[in-house]
Here is the input.
Amino acid sequence: MKRAVLVLCLVAMAGSVSAQPSKLFYNIDREVTIKGLIRDIVMEPRYENTAPFLVIGLEEKTSGKLYMVEISPAWFFDRDFHKGESLQVTGSLSNRADQALVIARLVTWQGEMTAVRDKHGFPNWRGGRGRQRRRRKR
Here is the structure.
C-alpha cells in the first residue's frame, strides 16, 4: 500500500512539473536583428507573479515572417506603439509553442534606441520601477 501511494505521488509530481511552462532565457549566441512592421500589440502575463509584458507581433519586411517580440514589463517601456509602424529589434531568437519568439535587448523606433536589456541579456528593469532606462538617439 505504501509503495502504491509513493508511486502515485511521484507520478503526480512529475505531471505537475512537466505541465509548467519552461522559462525562456536570453541567449547572446542566438541574437538577431529584425526590421519590420508592427502587426499586433498586447499586454500579456508572461511569467508567474510578474507584471504583464509588452509583446509585439512584428512582421519582417523582407520575408513577411511574423515574430512575437517580448519587450519588457509594461511599466518599464513607456512608448506608445501603433499597428503599421516600423520597428527594429535586436534580441535573442527562441521558439515557444512552434512560434518564432524574440526576447528584445534593443528596440529602435522613430530614430530612438532603447536598451531593455544589457549586452549580456540581463534585464534593465532589475531593481524595480525606480531604475533609469538607457536611451540614445541614433
Notes: The domain at 28-137 is CATH 2.40.50.140 (OB fold (Dihydrolipoamide Acetyltransferase, E2P)). DSSP finds one helix and seven strands in the chain. Confidence is low (pLDDT under 50) at residues 1-21, 131-138.
